Amino acid sequence: MKYSLRAGGKRVRPALTLAAASLFGGEAGMAAAMPSAVAVEMIHTMSLIHDDLPAMDNDDLRRGLPTNHVVYGEDVAILAGDALLALAFEHVAKATEGVDPRRVVSVLGVLGACVGARGLAGGQVMDLESEGKGDGEVTMETLTWIHTHKTAALLVASAVAGATVAGASDEDVGRLRTFATKIGLAFQIADDVLDVTSSSTVLGKTSGKDEAVNKVTYPRLLGLDGARARAEELVAEAKACLDVYGDKAAVLSELADFIIERRN
After folding, report:
1. Which Pfam families does the record associate with it (predicted)?
2. pLDDT tens digits along 205-257
3. What is the distance between the alpha carbons of residues 127 and 150, in angstroms, rounded to a whole number?
């Protein structure tokens, strides 16, 4: 568990949680959201451990290190992922302080939904089913559905968790949902582009995997320039959701820019 959790990474999801909490609750909101920030990184790490398994994407490199199952075996890797998922919920339930219990329960529900059939798991199933299919069989609509669930769902949960514990209104939470969905899709497009244009050394994971398994991606449907343009469009739309908050949302806006400017 520690091996994968401490392996580094961009920590975009916990940063999103804390930025959302800061927007609506300042420093006190960030403090209240820290358990949720830790939890979303645990959930993300679980998803990476399981995603790298031979039964899934069968990868041996993650964050510049051998993947969990390469080091500890498939059996232990599966259990490590399961344990991280359980610990994420336990940590939110036990460590969140000074927050209305109803809001804590709401966060737990949001985290549960983002992992299940209407979130990561459902998106991963559809992603696996799309491998080896032609462009005509996997449409833009299908690809967007896959990554709204597989990629964007946890980013949405991250933003919503931070906003919720900080006392945001339903209207504010709705804006953050839209914002995070759009940057989540932009994140996936950037990933697809980097898989084509970058190296394993820079990425910290095996490059060229999508083409190797004949997976339909945004660059494959739109071309590299078209994919980049779509990512920029999504980020612009996401940032427009924050206009109502003015400069208070500067960190969230910077996170949105980072999504498509990153190199790994």
Report:
1. polyprenyl_synt
2. 888 888 877 888 999 999 999 999 999 999 999 999 999 999 999 999 999 99
3. 8
